[in-house]
Write a structure and sequence with these properties.
Largest sheet: 10 strands, mixed
Radius of gyration: 20 Å
CATH topology of the largest domain: Spore Coat Polysaccharide Biosynthesis Protein SpsA, Chain A
Structural class: alpha/beta
Number of helices: 14
Order of helices and strands: EHHEHEHEEHEEEEEEHHEHHHHEHHHE
Oligomer: single chain
CATH class of the largest domain: Alpha Beta
CATH architecture of the largest domain: Alpha-Beta Complex
Shape: globular
Distance between the termini: 39 Å
Number of domains: 2
Number of strands: 14
CATH superfamily of the largest domain: Spore Coat Polysaccharide Biosynthesis Protein SpsA, Chain A
């Protein structure tokens, strides 16, 4: 049974959650600009919630002094990570105000530049019952190039940010499905998510792969993720993650395999998981020369392969939206992935940066929702 009752109290509200951990120390005025930009969004029924993840840098006092009752401040007693902080914060909000129609997850280093973006995204979400997650176009810190217009993932769990590095004018002005939405700013139709999963993010992931696991799981139940061709704002880059790099080295590897084992079908696991494991084993000797980073990443691989799967996640009957190249292409791209420059120059994913996946392309796939490339 779901931990929530999505049918009670649902209305047209949008709850925008900004998770903060020592943002004043790590980000300075960017934290203030982020919250101010959220408050300027042109949407009538919008609640802005700041969830403080046990900060020790006076972030709470600064937020209370500057914004007062304009934001709902939820204080957590310790740092629960990205997954746990957002999940616990959302749960406390639901207990306080009931279930909104949509939830926006926004990083504390994201600055909204288009006050109308939420109206545009909600319009598409309202029109389609089978779309559960959406994002707009996220720009890099300079505001001139695209960071992401949705993210594609292939059967080997390699990821490609759609339109990354391009000018906004170079990205197709078309709606496109995507494997998942970037967690810097994503809009979630919360009722089907809670009905299917009972939660937004899996707390045991702690950091990294949270939004990926959510979207893969929802795709398997037939609920799609879409990228709307409208600029939402600027992602300044996560100073918080940079402060905990050893944890990120570990979690990035561990969570990759936890997610793969739980959200992909037995067919995909049997065909590709062993190739991934073989690749990781072949790279163990290289990590000897990487010092602590190599040791920590290797431990993450072992724990991700051997540890128990994610709890309370039931996979649906569909494949998630994954790019399905020929096996040799996937292996070749994987061997290049150790160098981002090589992968971007010679990998097959580099040729798909402007890929647009529409309903016709989905229908052309004999296995929903694997997209042949």
């Amino acid at each position: 049974m779901s931990r929530y009752n999505p049918g009670v109290g649902m209305d047209s509200r949008v709850a925008l959650i900004i998770l903060n951990y020592n943002g004043l120390k790590n980000l300075g005025d960017i934290l203030v600009q982020s919250i101010e930009s959220a408050l300027r969004i042109d949407y009538k029924d919008l609640d802005v919630i700041v969830v403080d993840n046990g900060s020790t840098d006076n972030s709470v006092e600064e937020i209370e002094d500057r914004f007062g009752s304009d934001v709902t401040l939820i204080k957590l007693e310790k740092n629960y990570g990205y997954a746990g902080g957002n999940e616990i914060g959302l749960r406390r909000y639901l207990n306080y105000k009931g279930v909104p129609k949509y939830v926006v997850i926004m990083n504390n280093d994201f600055i909204v530049k288009n006050e109308q973006f939420l109206r545009s995204i909600v319009k598409y979400l309202d029109a389609r019952k089978d779309i559960a997650i959406a994002q707009g176009i996220t720009l890099d810190a300079d505001g001139k190039r695209i960071e992401s217009a949705g993210v594609f993932q292939d059967v080997m769990l390699q990821q490609m940010k759609r339109c990354s590095g391009l000018k906004p004018s170079e990205c197709p002005e078309k709606l496109s499905y995507a494997t998942f939405a970037l967690g810097a700013l994503m809009v979630v139709k919360i009722k089907p998510v809670l009905e299917i999963r009972g939660c937004l993010f899996k707390r045991e992931l702690f950091i990294l792969w949270e939004e990926t696991e959510l979207a893969l799981n929802m795709w398997s139940h037939g609920f799609k993720t879409i990228a709307v061709p409208e600029i939402s704002g600027i992602h300044m880059g996560s100073a918080t993650t940079k402060k905990v790099m050893p944890l990120a080295w570990y979690a990035g590897k561990r969570n990759r395999y936890l997610v793969y084992r739980k959200t992909l079908s037995p067919y995909l696991r049997s065909r590709y998981l062993y190739l991934l494991i073989a690749f990781e084993i072949a790279n163990f000797y290289l990590r000897i020369f990487q010092g602590d980073r190599g040791r920590i990443a290797s431990r993450g691989v072992v724990d991700g392969i051997m540890a128990r799967e994610l709890t309370r996640v039931k996979r649906g009957t569909y494949e998630p939206l994954l790019l399905a190249p020929k096996v040799w292409q996937a292996i070749h791209n994987l061997t290049l992935s150790a160098s981002k420059n090589l992968a971007m120059k010679y990998g097959y994913l580099s040729r798909l940066v402007t890929l647009t996946v529409d309903d016709e392309k989905l229908r052309s796939s004999p296995t929903p929702f694997l997209v042949k490339v």
